[in-house]
Amino acid sequence: MLELRPNCEICDRDLPPESEEAHICTYECTYCTTCAADLMNVCPNCGGNLQPRPIRPATAHRPNTGLPHDPAGTRRRHSRWSAGERLAFSMSLKDVPPAQR
């Protein structure tokens, strides 16, 4: 089950389950749209691409589904990267073609 993390790991912006502003990588690292764009949609932790996070329905459309059955996570996460390291990472991607990011 996809973990819906409650915040951007960089700026700590709240990202509730219904947010269309959340982006994730395959390891479920979570960033807001602004921080994802600053990272050129590349996860600084794993190097994978960042995609919009799916929205889990607030109501169950079938038994054992939706937020009532699988609630969003509550543990806030924070990046281990300093602001300078993130900036250097983003700058290193500027000359890399999108297909190779």
DSSP strand (E) fraction?
A: 5-15%
Count of alpha/pi helices: 3
Question: Largest sheet, if any?
Answer: 3 strands, antiparallel
Radius of gyration equals 15 Å
* Strand tally: 3
* Unreliable parts: none
String of helices and strands: EEHEHH
**3D shape:** elongated
Helix content: 10-25%
Mean pLDDT: 87
Calculate the terminal CA-CA distance, rounded to whole Å: 27 Å
Structural class: alpha+beta
* Order of strands across the main sheet: 2-1-3
What would you note in describing this structure?
InterPro entries: DUF1272. It comes from Seohaeicola nanhaiensis. This is DUF1272 domain-containing protein. Residues 57-81 are annotated as: Disordered. The protein is an alpha+beta fold. It has a domain at 22-91. Helices cover 21% and strands 8% of the residues. It is built from three helices and three strands; from the N terminus they run E-E-H-E-H-H. It has a three-stranded antiparallel β-sheet with strand order 2-1-3. The protein is elongated, with a radius of gyration of 15 Å. The chain starts with 21 loop residues before the first strand and ends in an 8-residue tail after the last helix. The model has no long low-confidence stretch (mean pLDDT 87).
Give the gist of this structure:
The chain is an alpha+beta fold and 101 residues long.
Secondary-structure topology with pairs:
Elements: E1 22-24, E2 30-32, H1 33-38, E3 51-52, H2 66-69, H3 83-93
Antiparallel strand pairs: 1-2, 1-3
